[in-house]
Amino acid sequence: MEPDTILVITILICLFFLAIVISVLISNRRKERTDLNADKAREISTGNFDEHLKNLIDHWKVMEAVKLVRETKNVGLKEAKDYINKFMRGEVPGGYIFEPEEEAPAPEELEEKVFELLVKKKKIEAVKLVKENLNLGLKEAKDYVEEIEKKINL
């Protein structure tokens, strides 16, 4: 055999073994993640949810804490973030943390408040009010306020 052929075969064999090693490492990594998720589930089910959140936050893993709250409590991103913020401030949630703290105003009341703010030339505050009360994005809230603006010809 020629030296070039032997070199190519050697390289192919090395690549084959490298692929096997990488496959084994990835498989072990997945198993570790599965074990960690099982540990998290066990920890949560035994009532150490708050301790686990505190541990994540203490280790600067806030995004993981938010994700854990979302998955465990089956809530949206905003609600999970609010929960983590209250948790970080040391507020102890009483009952369900995800219940609204105060009732959102009825659509007519909201339009009245927006109208009052627009008359006072406080469009930014009106957009913020709509965004918070209707859980809209910034653009949608701005569009909503501008529709009211058109209605009253300001």
Taken from the alpha-carbon principal axes, the silhouette is elongated
Percent in helix: over 70%
Q: Roughly what is the average pLDDT, rounded to an integer? A: 77
Counting structural domains, the number is 3
N-C termini distance: 89 Å
* Main beta-sheet strand count, sense and barrel state: none
CA-based gyration radius: 27 Å
Q: Specify the number of helices.
A: 7
Count the E strands: 0
| Percentage of residues in strands | under 5%
User: What structural category characterises the helix and strand content?
Assistant: mainly alpha
Low-pLDDT residue spans: 94-101
What is the N-to-C order of secondary-structure elements (H for helix, E for strand)?
HHHHHHH
Please provide a written account of the structure.
This protein has 7 helices and no strands. With 154 residues, the chain is an all-alpha fold. The chain has 3 domains: 1-43; 47-99, no CATH class; 107-152. Helix 3 (62-73) crosses helix 4 (77-89) and helix 6 packs across helix 7 (138-152). The radius of gyration is 27 Å and the shape is elongated.
